[in-house]
Amino acid sequence: MKFLILLLISILFLSSPVIGKETGKGTTTYNVGKIMNGEEEDQELGEDEELGKDEEVGEDEEVGEDEEVREDEEVREDEEVGEDEEVGEDEDEIGEYNGEFKDGEYHGQGTYTYPDGEKYEGEWKDGEYHGQGTYTYPDGEKYVGDFKEGLPNGQGTYTYPDGEKYIGEWKDGEEHGQGTYTSSEREKYVGEFKDGEKWNGTVYDKNGEIVVRFVNGKQLEQ
Length: 222
Known about the structure:
Elements: H1 2-14, H2 17-23, H3 25-93, E1 96-102, E2 105-113, E3 119-125, E4 128-136, E5 142-148, E6 151-159, E7 165-171, E8 174-182, E9 188-194, E10 197-204, E11 210-215, E12 218-221
Antiparallel strand pairs: 1-2, 2-3, 3-4, 4-5, 5-6, 6-7, 7-8, 8-9, 9-10, 10-11, 11-12
C-alpha cells in the first residue's frame, strides 16, 4: 500500500504543470529569447547610431558647403564693391583729353583738362607729359618749360599770382641747378639750387644790394 501511495505521489509531482513551467524549457527559452531580442535591439540601435552619424556628417558637409558658398558670395560681393569703389575714384579723376594718340595712349600734341580746372597743354609720350608743355592751376600758378616722364625736367619757368617767379633748371619736379628766384618783394636769389633748396648763391634786395649769401645750403649773413 505504501508503495502504491509513493508511486502516485511521484507521478503527480512529475506531471505538475506549475513546477514544470518554472524549471523547464519555458524559462530557458524565455531567457534565450530575451538575449536575442537584446542583441537585435543593440544591432538596430547601432544602425540607428551609425545612421544618425551619417546624417550628421551629411548635414555638416551640407553646412560646410553652404558656408563656403556664402563666404564665396561675400568675397565676390566685397570684390565687386571694391572694384566699384575704385571705379568711382577713377571717375572722380577723369578729365577731358583732346589731342593725338599712339597705340591707345596720349602721344604727340594734346591738352588735358582736369575736373578741378588744372590743365596741361603740350607734348605727350606714352601717356605722360614729355617735352615742351604748360601746366596751369586754377589759382593762377603756372609752369612753362620742359617735362620728362610727367614731371618738370630741364629748363622751365614757374610763376605765382603774387608775382613770385623761378626761372632756371629743374630735376624731377624740383628746382635743381642754376636758376633765379624773384620774391613778391622783388628780392632776388641768383645761383645754384639743389633739390628745391637754395644752395650756392646770393640774395639781392630790390635795389641790387647783397642781403645774404648761401654756401652749400648754409646761409651766411653779410
